[in-house]
Amino acid sequence: MTSTTPAPPPPPLDDRRHDADAVRDADGAQTAGGMQSPARLQSPTGGQRPASTAAERPFGAHLRLSWWKPLVIIPVLLISMFVAQLALTFVVVVVEVAAFGRDPGDTSLSPLMMAAVNLSLAVMGPLAVLLTAVIGRVPWRSLLAFPRRMSLRRWGVYFGGFTLLVALALAIMAVLDPAAAGLSSFALTGTTVGLLVVAVLSTPLQAAGEELMFRGALMPLIASWIRAAKPALVTGLIGSSILFGLVHMSVDPWLLSYYTVFGLCMAAMAVLSRGLEAPIAFHVTNNLIMMIVGTLFADGGGLEIDRSVGMGGPFMLVFIAVDIAAVALVWLYERRVRP
């Protein structure tokens, strides 16, 4: 007589659910942006380590890092920025003094000097992303947009809208106060053409580099020190904006206030849109238009950028209003397109 061994009964439903949850916790969940956002990740040693990003937190406060990592990354980035700018501008001054007889006391921007300044700032963007990704063990794409992916449509919408906005503000300034807008001494020389070429080629890189550094890296790095999401976001937004204002090295209260508010507005755009398309688009558009106009009305010589006391004034309120209007445009657009 043949005997059979009865099959073991299936595990209770609750146990099976528990097993499935354990598998999901180990593998990680997928966010809408295609990036992994688990509560915990499997470490190479077989244990678990905390995830470096949190999809439930807003962009700008979405990193989860050990306290010491921002303490290393932030000073390295700020020091590197100053060293790169000083080194490149020093080389240019030496070359222009030796080759072209430039006056060492001349503070105007020649085409070569503009290229040095812009490229020294442009390189900081990739460096900020690289350091944060490597030291913080953060997915580099999460520093550009999170939890979604970057959007080509956003690039087009924001570049178009901001170009119209900045051009309109400049036209208003030209009517109200041409001298404050820098529209008083038009000339076209070889220096002018050189500056225009350098501005068009390098200013977008400079503006994008600053956004990658300050809004892509520094804002979430500072915010990662705070556990609660809202206080973390406020801390990161304010802290990165103050740093942005200070690194422009102006002691004029109007200019310092303008640069800080500009940083706040760029940070607000990043938070509202959950990415860097809007702040990069506005920063590029604003700087490029201002550089082109400033070059055309520099009386055919080098471009003067004077940030000393007395160079700012109440007319800066117009530019601050433009920054705030840009934030409002981002809020309206994101409110329409976000599901």
From TrEMBL:
Tell me the superkingdom of the source. Bacteria
UniProt lists compositionally biased (Basic and acidic residues) regions at: 13-27
A Pfam family that this protein carries is: Rce1-like
One function term, GO molecular function aspect: endopeptidase activity
Note the InterPro entries from the entry.
Rce1/LyrA-like_dom
Spans annotated as Disordered:
1-55
Which parts of the chain span the membrane according to its record? 71-100, 112-135, 155-176, 182-207, 228-249, 255-272, 284-303, 315-333
> Under what name is this protein listed?
CAAX amino terminal protease family
Key word Ribonucleoprotein present: no
What keywords appear on the UniProt entry? Hydrolase, Membrane, Protease, Transmembrane, Transmembrane helix
Regions of biased composition (Pro residues) lie at 1-12
Biological process terms from the Gene Ontology for this record are:
CAAX-box protein maturation; proteolysis
The CAAX prenyl protease 2/Lysostaphin resistance protein A-like domain, residue ranges: 194-289
